[in-house]
Amino acid sequence: MNLITSKDNPRLKTIRRLAQDPQAYRKLGLVWLEGDHLCRAAMAQGLKSELAIFSKSIWQASEFEWSQCANEVWTVPDDLFEGLSALESPAKMGFLFPLPDSPALDPRAATVVLDRLQDAGNVGAILRSASAFGFKQVVAIKGTAGLWSPKVLRAAMGAHFALSLIESASLDLLQALQVPLLGTDVHEGPYLHELVQQGKLARHCAWVLGHEGQGVSPELMARVNQKVRIAQPGGEESLNVATAAAICLHASATSK
Question: Which of 65, 72, 156, 216 lies most in the core, judged by the most C-beta atoms within 10 Å?
Answer without folding.
Answer: 156
